[in-house]
Amino acid sequence: MSISKLSAVLVVTLTMPTAFAQNISAQNIPAQSARSVEAASADQAKEAKLEHFDPTAVDPTLDPCNDFYKYSCNKWLSSNPIPPDQVFWSTGSGLELWNESILRETLEAASKNDPSRSAVQQKIGDYWAACMDESGIEAAGLKPLQPELDRIAALQSKTQLTQEIAHLHHLFPGAWQQGDDQTNSPLFGFTGQQDYDDASKVVAQIDQGGLSLPNRDYYLKTDDKSKELLTKYRAHVKKMFVLSGESDTQAAADAGIVVELETAMAQAQMDNVKRRDPKNINNKMSLAQVKALTPSLDWSVYLKAVNAPASDHYIVTSPDFFRAEEKLIAEHPLDHWKAYLRWHLIHSASPTLTKAMVDENFDFFAHTLAGAEEQLPRWRRCVHGADRDLGEALGQAYVDRAFPPESKARTLQMVHSIETALGADIESVTWISPVTKEQAIVKLKGIEDKIGYPSHWRDYSSVKIVRESWASNVEQSSSFEFERWVNKIGKPVDRAEWTMTPPTINAYYDPQLNTINFPAGILQPPFFDAEKDDAVNYGAIGMVIGHEIIHGFDDQGRKFDAHGNLRDWWTPEDAKQYDERGKCISDEYTQEVPDAGPGVKQNGLLTQGEDTADNGGIHLALNALEASLKRQGKSLDDKGPDGWTYRQRFFVSYAYSWCASIRPQIASVIVTTDPHSLPVFRINNVVSNMPEFKQAFSCKSGQKMVRANACRVW
Ligand SMILES: [Zn+2]
Asked: What is the 612 CA–ligand 1 centroid distance (Å)?
């Protein structure tokens, strides 16, 4: 799956993977995908192989009741080793390459300098041409960076810092995003987002930020491995300074300053478990209060420089972070801040610059940190860039080619039947009182289903894309996106908007819009397969749909109402019952993670929402399948054409869609930063909580896939 961390809000997604692409480094972590070298088109077609569910994929020598993940995935895993340019390789990886191959063809066709091109083709085509022009990029050397380095060098006093921070925020891809941990832009993040208490309003949000490593733990943990990684990070920062033209001595000193400042910011940051509770980040302030919090930042200058409309109030996610940052700005001389800003500039721009910069960035962030052995081929890096920077321009052609109306209709039908299943579940449970049930049904009925792609496409006409400079194109696109988010402040909410692009292999629930969103990119095999029966589709994409719906009712989502307001609609007794059930999940998932190294433990409090969504989602999908079979006069335990019962096909299809090999380095990053459990737990923990699974494979009590203290929320 793709690992995407998204959106300025508390959006919850299906999968881990792209989180890193944005969080670790601008764009250099390979998402799971294909082969290492530039594929000729024939090879490419061969490699872009979609996995279709195949019941013979299971390993009959293994016992499903002992380790269902192994039983379902062993054969696939042993015949599909992780390619050298990948850190994560799954049954969805063929789809990722398939999607990207379609995007590549679209980009290549649009890149022919033909006067008859449409405005959209000009944007994506010239973007592609500039990105693929490696020799031009090499010849330009540091030229694209120089004006920005000069701006920082020209700063005369700390009072000028704010203006420069505002300028740099424009240039950072993803600067508008609120991650699970922080915003990955210099010093802090700024964006427009829906107010927690009144979702009809968009207000300004000021978020903690300023780090370059995945999260605060990477600066603060004191075990040998963590300390070694931080030492390697410092060496990397130094090398990047040298590559940008500094002397060895200067670079070493500057790297020390960067690590010192980032460590101090990490120390002050709220941790990702605390951030999961929206009331902890919903700190409303007036502009006067914001100014008093950090007098060293000139907020009047900042707001003017980012063209921020007036905001009713300001949400400051972590006031303590800003108190600490204020002290830091006061204590450190201007030269330290210049070094810090220079680093963030170089780091962010490095993927668009010379081979030496690209290689050094890869070496630390993708190789050392995530475990990749080789870089992604250039074409794939350029596809990722175009998808990030001009995603809704590029996505139109993808939808035309890969997402027929029949796929949309069948998905929507499944969504409706799964929503019906949740309605029945809410009505039938005994632990929720009628008054809370009524509210839950209102919320369920209020969910808006968004399938495939947005109803209107984003207008990129104001983004200046040229054939001559990829670095400039990335800056222009980042600036456009940053200001687009800021400009939402004070305006009506656009409910139709998406925060994932159409080819994305992921899905999300947005608690403040109360929408579920399934991009066309995931509505493909092995998740959605038009050629397969309901048992296969409910097991794979059905679980995904159920997962997103349950996010509206997980420990975080349940705190928002049908309109997206942070409002407690649970009676105290029902909330207590909920928390007990939730604790069962978080205790269960606080577990050893052998894949990430000896002694590494998952924090079930970080993954509770995702785990609740997995466990509830699979129930809904199974119940919807049962209803669908019933309409056809069949039952779950009838045998299908291949001799499996529908119940068995459902579970095997579920597990098969999550088979994945993961390098230990990235597994360790995931456990530290990501709210999703690793795939093996997304299968084995879930099925071991289910009597329905025990029944499917006639498992016995005491076997590993039959948990004595099974958890159940939904
Ligand atoms: Zn999720």
From this structure: 9
